[in-house]
Amino acid sequence: MSDLPENLKYAPSHEWAQLEDDNVVRVGITDFAQEQLGDLVYIELPELGRKVTAGEQCAVVESVKTASDLYSPVSGEIVAINEAVVDAPEEVNDAPYQTWLFCIKADNLSELDALLDADAYQQSINQ
Asked: Can you give the residue range of the structural domain that contains 52?
């Protein structure tokens, strides 16, 4: 298992979240998630402008093994999607912490406090 970036927050459902400027939260999936899924072949991203709540299913990744729902780590509005990964989903396998999927303009940044830090996430996947 690779070292987890300390600057990210982690959802128990294996998404990572990074706070950017202007209350925007960048979201991707963890290295652990992409390893469990295997080679990604398809990604369905949420629509721009969609309102999501923390914990709501909002995207799907499909691999050669299975399909998996992705959940929003915070509530807010989808303000950006990474169109490049739709055409090249393998980028997530190659660089999970550099390859973001979507960005949410967060309604309430305190929701990030409910997510796990790197140590707590590592403990959760070791169990």
From this structure: 9-126
